[in-house]
Structure prediction request, 142 residues.
Amino acid sequence: MHAQTLYFLLTGAALLALGAPPAAAQAKPAPAIVLEGELERARLKAVLDQGPQRFIASLRVAPHMKGKRFMGFRIEGFAADSPLVNGAAVRPGDVVLEINREPVERPDQFMRAWEVVGDADSLEVELLRGTQRYIYKWTLLP
Prediction:
């Protein structure tokens, strides 16, 4: 066997034995875009005081799936009196992934996020808009 052919065969066998490239060499998702602002605590408290049922009733949502995996809830629209209707952060089509770093996939997780927000110094909403992740962070003002 020619030496160059033997070299290519051995090199090819070695590469096959290595398998897939390490995770660090694989494509990474784009980092989230972080947008920050301020929000009066009284505005947030007014929403929280109405209760989670009222807040949920002000939204039209649908599950957002990636294959068979649930990713979050896609905002389909807002009721006219929704606290989100005039906001610039959450838009129809956005998929809400987390609130204050709490996932919101199941009702108990949403309730945990609802409770965490009430005592927090900030409000953080992570969402997916198309293929881009956004993190909106509001510092809560007295």
In short: The two ends are 80 Å apart (CA to CA).
